[in-house]
Amino acid sequence: MLKDITLGQYFPGNSLAHKLDPRTKILLTVLYIVTLFCARSFVSYGIVALLLATGVKVSGVAPKALVRGLKPILFIICFTAALNLLYTPGEVLASFWIFKITKEGIFTAFFMVLRITMLIMGTFLLTYTTSPIALTDGLETLLGPLKKAKVPVHELAMIMSIALRFIPTLIEETDKIMSAQKARGADFESGSLMQRAKALVPILVPLFISAFRRADELAVAMECRCYHGDAGRTKLHVLRYQARDYLVLAAYGIVLAAVLTLAHFGL
Amino acid sequence: MTDIIKTENLTFAYPPDEGKEPVLALQGIDLSITQGSFTVVLGHNGSGKSTLAKHMNAVLLPGGGTVWVDGLDTANEELLIEIRRRVGMVFQNPDNQIVANVVEEDVAFGPENLGIPTPEIQARVSAALKAVGMEEFTLHAPHHLSGGQKQRIAIAGVIAMEPACIVLDESTAMLDPLGRREVLDTVKKLNREKNITIILITHHMDEAAMADRVVVMDGGRVVMDGTPQEILVQVEKLQAIGLAAPHTVELLHGLRQDGFDVPLDALGIQECADVITASFKS
Predict the structure, then answer these.
(1) Is B245 an 8 Å CB contact of chain A?
(2) Predicted confidence band at A1 (pLDDT cuts at 50, 70, 90)?
(3) Which residues lie across from B165 on neighbouring strands?
(4) Model confidence band, residue B12 (pLDDT cutoffs 50, 70, 90)
(5) Taking 60 as the threshold, does the pLDDT of residue B101 lie above it?
(6) Is the CB of residue B91 less than 8 Å away from at least one CB of chain A?
(7) Helices A103-129, A22-38: crossing angle, 10 deg rounding
(8) Nearest C-alpha of chain A: how many angstroms from B239?
(9) Is A255 on the interface with B (CB under 8 A)?
């Protein structure tokens, strides 16, 4: 059951979206989110949707995979939609008990759902087309200037990549511990919520102990391989912007300018 | 021949539990390892063999006495990086020594830390992966590999730092027989072709048979030291410190006790079969 967990799922590929520098993609995602939050009308939402569709098309990621990624936040989407639908003041269209549905409410709810959905899909597009290593590399270089302000950028990137490295190992371990506890008669599938939560304790304790032991051994192994932080470190792959990165960023700049102008005129 | 590692009257004690006297894990070790040799260190659990291994690249520092790596005193903290780039270490659990998500990135971890220029790292990574026979897995994720393959990646990560010596601290203990074979064949090849000194810490007697030299430890001391042919035939002495002689030697030992005239030092299976048939024929 635990094998289903997808975290930062990466689909290897050879599309333009895969080939772009991770820094370009991170910047694009940030700009995309900004655009999304500036959009206020059907026209500008249409432009952003078109943008997303282009991104999906270019990346070659199956739209199905993007929709599947929405499942875990379906509740949040519905909840936000309901709240916006029921609690926006304005021209009342229908009312029952204490609830009033307004015209503005319908619009806000619709745009809100659209915004969250496109936000999630856009960020998924980033993680689907960028390997975790490229992602941490990109973040580390992008945030590099913060090192001058004593922000431990390299250390954070290292923590992130080690965490990603150990997720499959720890999932495998959890599976093993669960099987071992089941063999000793533990029951994880029945009982009240409280009982089930309590049943997890015998999994978490050994898992934590083993995680700490692993961390300790890994630290020694890293030291043995001369790890001494960021100072004087070189890289196997050095990130370099290509012409395509500049082109894509420039193209995106135009779109952002268009949406901002539209928003300025209330569209 | 120069010594890559030399210890003189090396003692070490782990911090004791509260209210207890410290027990010396190493009680005065004098050992010289020749550059390019293949040494197996044998001993049962708690004999101090792993503690000794950890002194060979300054993971542990001597409580008393001195350890030199290529003439560098391990107690000198300024030499730490220089010492560790000369002596690489491969540990027991393959999962807990792989740092990166992709095989090539993991192999590159050591050279990256040493500040090797990018083009040379790339050359070293492909050479190291080739040396351990894992070049087709360059872009794989380590968690999809078998235990033996992971250990070979760990060895490649060490080779990429171009060390003079590799210490394998029970690196075969968690592997299945096939994985063990892979790892042993790899280190044998590295020793032969690249003249890298190998120190293999183990409790598998059959692994000792392939070494140039066997060092047996017990209670924090070196109790036996010599060629496999000299050490592994001393069945009673090995049994006394909780080690079993290789199956071949045990068989020959049993035959001798039953009055057959066979030599004891036929360590390999084929050799052993040959001397037994020869003895039966005569």
Answers:
(1) no
(2) very low
(3) B87, B197
(4) very high
(5) yes
(6) yes
(7) 180
(8) 32
(9) no
How far apart are alpha carbons B46 and B196 in whole angstroms?
A: 28
Closest of B198, B100, B120 to residue B161, by C-alpha:
B120
Residues of chain B numbered 144-163 and touching chain A (CB < 8 Å): 157-158, 161
Q: Sort out which chain B residues have CB atoms less than 8 A from A127's CB and list them.
A: none
Residues constituting chain B: 282
Cα separation, B100 vs A236, whole angstroms: 12
Higher pLDDT, B111 or B2: B111
CB of B134 within 8 Å of a chain A CB? The answer is no
> Is residue A81 within 8 Å of residue A109, measured between CB atoms?
yes
Sequence-distant (≥ 6) Cβ neighbours of residue B79 within 8 angstroms: B72, B73
pLDDT the model gives residue A8: 54
**Substitution target from B57, B61, B105, B118 for chain A, most A beta carbons within 10 A:** B105
Of B272, B270, B269, B268, the C-alpha closest to B260 is B272
Query: Residue B262 above 90 pLDDT?
Result: no
Helix axis angle for A243-264 and A42-59, nearest 10°, is 160
- The CA-to-CA distance between both ends of chain B, in Å, stands at 43
For chain A, say whether B96 makes contact (Cβ under 8 Å): yes
Contact state of B113 with A225 under an 8 Å Cβ cutoff: yes
Across the interface, do A225 and B115 touch by the CB < 8 Å criterion? no
Cβ-Cβ contacts under 8 Å, A230 against chain B:
none
Helix runs in A69-200, H state only: 74-87, 103-129, 132-142, 153-183, 193-199
Coil, helix or strand at residue A53: helix
Distances (CA, A) of B82 to A58, A217, B119, B209: 49, 21, 22, 32
Q: What ipTM did this prediction achieve?
A: 0.87
Alpha carbon distance, N-terminus to C-terminus of chain A: 47
Containing A103, the helix (H) or strand (E) segment is helix A103-129
Give how far B160 is from chain A: nearest CA, Å: 10
pLDDT digits (tens, 9 = 90+) for A102-116: 888 888 888 889 899
Q: Which amino acid is at B130?
A: K
Tell if the CB–CB gap between B81 and A235 is shorter than 8 Å: no
* A15 backbone φψ class: left, alpha, beta (φ>0; ψ -120 to 50): beta
Q: pTM for the complete prediction?
A: 0.82
B85 touches chain A (CB under 8 A): yes
